[in-house]
Design goal:
The strands form two sheets. Strands 2, 4, 5, 6, 9, 10 and 11 form a seven-stranded mixed sheet that branches. The protein has a four-stranded antiparallel sheet with strand order 1-3-8-7, with no helix packed on it. It has no helices and eleven strands. It is an all-beta fold. Helices cover 0% and strands 57% of the residues.
């Protein structure tokens, strides 16, 4: 499985950014895709996941501000991030998890920087 992420970059506080991640290769029958993030000196944390049935799971920092969506036909997920804060600055990692055995794959990460 390969993951190709795009989006991210630099934005001012209060602004918006979008991320997308496309999976290719041998995709599992039941899976969840989404994003984690890691800021310098901090542990990796959940941003949002969505499974191929449409069920979503948001980490606390994302609730109310971020929206994850998916296109099952393209095995692609999208993350719309609104009302960004400087503390959202991190490397965002796309992941896909096999819900049958919880194995997972990770993308290379994309930088999101929110200036104050």
């Amino acid at each position: 499985v390969q993951l190709q992420a795009s989006g991210g970059g630099l934005v001012q506080a209060g602004g918006s950014l979008g991320l997308s991640c496309a999976a290719s290769g041998s995709i599992f029958k039941l899976y969840a895709m989404g994003w984690y993030r890691q800021a310098p000196g901090k542990q990796r944390e959940l941003v949002a996941l969505i499974n191929n049935g449409g069920t979503t799971n948001y980490g606390d920092p994302a609730k109310g501000r971020f929206t994850i969506s998916r296109d099952n036909a393209k095995t692609t997920v999208y993350l719309q991030m609104n009302s960004l804060k400087p503390e959202d600055t991190a490397v965002y990692y796309c992941t896909i998890k096999n819900l049958a055995d919880w194995s997972d794959y990770w993308g290379q990460g994309t930088q999101v920087t929110v200036s104050s």
